[in-house]
Amino acid sequence: VPISNIRNFSIIAHIDHGKSTLADKLLQVTGTVQNRDMKEQFLDNMDLERERGITIKLQAARMRYVYEDTPYCLNLIDTPGHVDFSYEVSRSLAACEGALLVVDASQGVEAQTLANVYLALENNLEIIPVLNKIDLPGAEPEKVLREIEEVIGLDCSKAIFCSAKEGIGITEILDAIVQRIPAPLDTAKNPLRALIFDSYYDPYRGVIVYFRVIDGKVKKGDRIFFMASGKDYFADEVGVLSPNQIQVDELYAGEVGYIAASVRSVADARVGDTITHYSRKAESSLPGYEEATPMVFCGLFPVDADQFPDLRDALEKLQLNDAALKFEPETSSAMGFGFRCGFLGLLHMEIVQERLEREYNLNLITTAPSVVYRVNSVNGDTTLCSNPSRLPDPGQRKSVEEPYVKIELLTPKDYIGALMELAQERRGEFKEMKYIAENRASILYELPLAEMVGDFFDQLKSRTKGYASMEYSVIGYRESDLIKLDILINAEMVEPLSTIVHRDKAYSVGRALTQKLKELIPRQMFKVPIQACIGSKVIASEALSAIRKDVLAKCYGGDISRKKKLLKKQAAGKKRMKAIGRVDVPQEAFMAVLKLE
Ligand code: GTP
């Protein structure tokens, strides 16, 4: 098709508002995917994604649609639905001319919707409002429509009412894509510039790069150059996604497709990088490229020290496919050999952990996540510290800075008080509150990222019965009065339990943490003191009393099967234990600091 008949768009939606269901319907109605090969939700094809019902990795699909007897090519570029991946979202939006804004007509605008709409507006996209789930009895599309107009200032006079589930409004959406979203600019004569919006590692063909040609053209066999990574390759294969990969000879400005070029790791073909020709390079790369900066770090230690090499192999394999994952070896006297790993956020961390355990059969102890601190030392150096146990001694440091985030909370007005209390407890600084609709308020706070890592989101949901939503972005570093709190179990320092806290909270955290550890660590054959210390000063202490009886003592003379069962139960209980000196410490204890109060 000519470039005037191409439309590139993505779908912006809050989690659960129906993005995947709608995408599936669009693929079905355009005949892109036959009913019979329709797996439920074609676009999210990773198991983990399906289980969690969230979109993690993006994909793309090309559809043919005939409008007024003219064939059009519609490229849907999917976006991941989580704040950890907002950089990826911004790059997929930059690859489009328009976006469908899908809002659940029974729920209304959520914080994440807002954040993504702003990203779309920054990228000058044409936005088509779609009110989904109008089949639900509780749907109030007119009301939600006014909300969108008020909050976002978007003209909703041509909003489309739809039910992705029932297939209502789907052709209206397709027509609107053709009518309202502009065609790409025809810049095929310029030097090649293609924007990478996704890439994944294929063990047989190397990295498969998904991109949108912004300027110029690219064909099979071309020698291509990645402007950010500075590497060059030959394009072994060029093709389109329909949504399966289909080879073509050449792709022109405005088109969306993939390249296989024997790239060895996704880090060499990162999202946001610009592809150009090796021999006719573009003058400048496309704007918006950013390096991945891990925000959250944790230690990963194999329960069984023999699994250390396997853990290293698994991390290396995952990294081939995940440019944002960082790791380096870490040793601790308490934990043995492991890795300190960096992630974009908590969800990213959980995904990696889960994959290591499920796909690589590793049995791991994960230590509590920490943010990256900036330490200004007395001799004038500034260093980064992502491991609380490595915070330099007070005598060596002049000041410590920590990352701050700006958060926006959207909530029904009944829960404003509860949310403000939560933010205040977490050292939040109130910035602004405004009503975005009769019954809904937006509250802005600035608070330390460290206070958000952990159970903040869970607390937000439980204190508002699930009605509030949030969105955050990092705004920079600020100096805080921070100190290191250490934990001693049976007089032995357990480095992975060290945590960095604000001085005002040190005593209460110390007390709560020792109490929590006492609950979580099973009693041993001997008495075990648990202490919280600042430097050499003990600020809180508890003790686990000793048990004397062996579990088997209960069934002396009893039947053998019961005995086996008990042993098995004990073994299962042991699975997630790490022996610290003579004390077995369970996985939950390492996360205890996140679940105080
Ligand atoms: P993420 O992948 O997490 O971003 O979620 P999503 O926005 O893709 O939502 P998804 O399509 O998975 O839909 C969420 C839930 O809403 C599912 O249980 C769908 O069956 C349901 N749903 C989607 N569209 C409709 C609709 O039009 N009507 C009704 N009643 N339910 C819908």
UniProtKB/TrEMBL annotation:
Cross-referenced SMART domains, in alphabetical order? EFG_C (SM00838)
Q: What does this protein do?
A: Promotes chloroplast protein synthesis. May act as a fidelity factor of the translation reaction, by catalyzing a one-codon backward translocation of tRNAs on improperly translocated ribosomes.
- What reaction does this enzyme carry out catalytically? GTP + H2O = GDP + phosphate + H(+)
UniProt cross-references to Pfam families, sorted A to Z? EFG_C, GTP_EFTU, GTP_EFTU_D2, LepA_C
All residue ranges annotated as the Tr-type G domain in the record: 4-185
The identity of this protein, by name, is: Translation factor GUF1 homolog, chloroplastic
Keywords for the protein's UniProt record, in alphabetical order = Chloroplast, GTP-binding, Hydrolase, Nucleotide-binding, Plastid, Protein biosynthesis
Record's subcellular location: Plastid, Chloroplast
Q: Which InterPro entries does the annotation name?
A: EF-4 (IPR006297), EFG_III/V (IPR035647), EFG_V-like (IPR000640), EFTu-like_2 (IPR004161), G_TR_CS (IPR031157), GUFP (IPR027518), LepA_C_sf (IPR038363), LepA_CTD (IPR013842)
A GO molecular function held by the record = GTPase activity
Is the Translocase keyword given for this protein?
Answer: no
Q: Which GO terms describe its biological process?
A: positive regulation of translation; translation
Q: Which PROSITE patterns match?
A: G_TR_1 (PS00301), G_TR_2 (PS51722)
Q: NCBIfam families per the record?
A: lepA, small_GTP
